[in-house]
Amino acid sequence: MSDIHLKNLVKSYGENIAVAGIDLHIRQGEFFSLLGPSGCGKSTTLRMIAGFIRPTVGQILIGSDDVTRLPPEKRDIGIVFQNYAIFPHMNVADNIAFGLKLRKKSHEDIDRAVAFALRQVGLVGYENRYQRQLSGGEQQRVALARVLVTEPRILLLDEPLSALDKALREEMKYWIKDLQKSLGITTVYVTHDQDEALTMSDRVGVMQKARVEQVGTPQEIYERPKTLFVTTFIGQSNVIDVTVRGRQGERLSVDFGDSTVLTRAPVAEVSVGSAAKLVIRPENVIIGAAGAGLSATVVSETYQGALVRYRLSVAGQEIVAERQNQAHLARFSPGEVVGVSWDPDRSEALVA
Amino acid sequence: MAATTTTGTADEGTGMRRIGLFRTVSAGPAFWWLVLPAFLFFLVFFVVPTVSLFALAFNKSAAGVISLSSAVTFDNFLRIFTRSIYYESILRSIGIAGAVSFICLVFGYPLAYVIAKTTNPGRNTLLMILVLSSMQLDMVIRLYGLMVLLGDNGLINAMLLRFGIISAALPLMYNVFGVIVGLVQITLPFMILSLIGVIKSIHPSLEEAARSLGASRAKAFFSVVLPLSMPGVLAGTLLVFALAISSYVVPALMGGWKVMVMPIHIYQQVAETGRWQFGAAIAVVLFLTSLMAIAVYHRAAMRTTGGRS
What we know:
The structure holds two protein chains of two kinds.
Chain A: E1 4-13, E2 16-26, E3 31-35, H1 42-50, E4 57-62, E5 65-66, E6 77-80, H2 92-102, H3 107-120, H4 136-148, E7 154-158, H5 166-183, E8 186-191, H6 194-200, E9 203-208, E10 211-216, H7 218-223, H8 228-233, E11 238-248, E12 251-256, E13 259-264, E14 275-280, E15 286-288, E16 294-303, E17 307-314, E18 317-324, E19 337-341, E20 347-350
Parallel strand pairs in A: 3-8, 3-9, 6-7, 7-8
Antiparallel strand pairs in A: 1-2, 1-4, 4-5, 9-10, 11-12, 11-14, 12-13, 14-20, 15-19, 16-17, 16-19, 17-18
Chain B: H1 36-56, H2 75-82, H3 84-117, H4 121-136, H5 139-150, H6 155-162, H7 176-201, H8 204-212, H9 217-228, H10 230-245, H11 249-255, H12 262-272, H13 276-304
Helix pairs in contact in B: 1-13, 2-3, 3-7, 3-10, 4-7, 5-11, 7-10, 7-11, 8-9, 10-13, 12-13
């Protein structure tokens, strides 16, 4: 088990840049997700760590070993593919034994390891089945067992849940996370699904356009997004055009229509009078009686079961608010004038 | 691989099964009408003439007589299996066709692999054109081209003589060597086309999975790609074998009537001596030989791949 260092990792195909200089330290035992839309370079990054793609520039270290120029078979990694890549001409036992046979282990050792791995992934009795006789979830378990018996230093998962149906995906999410935790294996998980990334990861790297935009814990990524892209890609946000009025320590005051509101200040310097984006999650928008906070008009109300969603018009801009659907909370109807406010610590100012 | 898939439940999303290819066939009786034209053509222009030719083999051999008689005799077959000139030609035909299949496989597989793995569309098209272009010219024309190259006064011999590497022309034609070169040239595209499709259908992640588990490039190829491409190997070799063993034109031109394979005998009997019955008997033997060789090979291949082609 090891940590992973990516140093100025670049991959270009002619003029096409797939990965534009990534510096990343993935800690030992950590569950690290690379999250981003398709084409953002997350899979290319994973495939460079695996050794299937040779980086144009940069360095990859697993532990203290520079593996940049090593072929995949010498990197001591385990990878699970989106389609699981179960060898269709071998049964489950032979699939799992594949890596051990290459390591010239004895028959007894292999049998023992295969039996152990099958118990680990809950597939005892599946030894003689073939890929075509396995469901997607079972194939995934076999793929994981096949990787884990070789005791790799790092585990790479390439969108392993995207081919499963929703219910199974929920189940596997927690199962994989628990397995990873109990093994303590350094894991890089590639996904375009923010929900998976937030639920499973210790830390998330959000990627866009060949770059890592932000690295942080799920909470940091969700609550303190550093860029507009991160804000809009993860969860939903109201993005409001405001003008910077001044900084007061940790707070920034901004002009929103005729009013001045407070928000958390960005780390970067901002000049007074410049345009900025005020970012608030719908669940952090507080709706109250008219007069409390900014004056707003209810545009629409959408019932969503556990939540009620309001579209509000505030100083010519639209704000979406979500409220728990609870008996003691009042409901508002379209056309009603209400007051809108939020906790300044639950909003961000991003300089465009 | 699972060719006849059942329902979609287990297949969804794996992207690796060939789903639906056979599912539509059972869509209803109306579909069978679509088969009718081809079936009728096949019946009238293949089954009827072939069966009547084969029936002729059981009539007494008589020059110039083509009409069927009800007097059944096995004399023609007896003659084939008692005269060395005929039964040796059976072995020669099998040997040459087997050699051609093997050579085509050895030459064709690497090329098919490269074409299947090339992702660059331009390069892929170029390679395909290369393979298919040889099929655009008539076989006879291509063989004449080969004769220009391989003849006693051909390019190769002329060159070697000129530079004093040899003192007398090498026998490159009108022998088994020439026939094999000709047959390989004709049948190689069939082998390559059979292989490309199968190799393409092997998902690249299977090879990558093998690599990540510790297999070298070669090991991954031999333990994953090659076994999974066995259906293509089987189809390609059988196709080439059938084409090679039944070829008349190639042994005629490249062998100069000196390499006596079964189709040459058939031609001689029918066209030169007019003994259709004996020619038909050789044709029956050729047909059965080919079928038997295919059956034996198929069984052997199935055994080596664990019956999972």
